Predict the structure.
Amino acid sequence: MAIQQWHDVLFSQGFGTRRVCAGLVQQGFVSHAGVVIEDGTDTVETEQLQFEVQGVSWAYHDSAYLVLHKPSGYECSQKPSLYPSIYTLLPAPLRQRGGGAAAGVQAVGRLDQDTTGLLVLSDDGKFIHRLTSPKHHVPKVYEVTTKHPVDATQIERLLGGVVLDDSPKPVAAFAAEQTGECALRLTLTEGKYHQVKRMLAAVSNRVEGLHRSRMGDLTLDGLPSGEWRWLTPAEVVAVSQKTK
Ligand code: URA
C-alpha cells in the first residue's frame, strides 16, 4: 500500500516540474477512472494505479524497467553525435521521471548505432549497476551476420579465447554456434566496447549485421522494431539470470 498526493504522482512519473504538474491538474487534464482530478493534494493508492493525462492512459510504476527493440541508426547516448538518440523513441515522462539532473531512464549498457535488438532501460541505479558490473555475468546473445563464411576454426577460436587490444587476457565466448554460411549466434558474458565486432575481427572475419536477441532469460518476444514496453516483475528477474 502506498498513498500519494496527485501532485507527487505526476511529478514522480515524469510529467514535468512541480509547477507543470500543478498546472496539469488545474487545467483539468488529469483523470482517474473517468473522473477529473480537481485538487492535486487529494491522495490516491499508487499500487496498480492507471490514470490519464490529456486523454493518454499511463500506468504508475515505482521504478521503471523497460525493454526497447532498438532499430539501426540510433545512438544509445543522451547527447548523440551523428544519429538520433534512442531516448527520442520513448515518451517524455520516461525521459523526465524522477526530476533532477540525472532524471529519466538510462540504458543498461550500450549497443552500437548499427546494432539492432534488445535493450533494457531503467531508472533503478542499483539494478543498472548490478547488470553492467563486470562481476555480474549476465549472458547476452547476439545474432551475427558476417562478411566472410564462418568455419569451424573460427568457432573454436571464439570459444577458446581471442586477444583484444585492451585486455591482456584472452576473451572467450560463452557459446558460439554457426547458424548459416555467413551467420553465427554468439553468447557473451562481458560487455566490452565493440566486443562482438572485435572478436570477429580477431578471427579474420567481419561483422556485417548485429542483432541482440536475448539478455539473461529475457527476449524481445515479438516486440516490433522501434517500440518499447514495460517489463513484468518476472521479466525483471529474468533479465538478471546469470549463466548456469
Ligand atoms: N558488440 C559489438 O561489437 N557491438 C554491439 O553493439 C554490441 C556488442
Observations:
- DSSP finds seven helices and 17 strands in the chain.
- Helices lie at 6-12, 18-26, 92-96, 125-132, 152-160, 195-202, 233-238.
- The pocket of uracil is lined by residues 111-112, 115, 194-197, 210 (CB under 6 Å).
- The domain at 139-215 is CATH 3.30.70.1560 (Alpha-Beta Plaits).
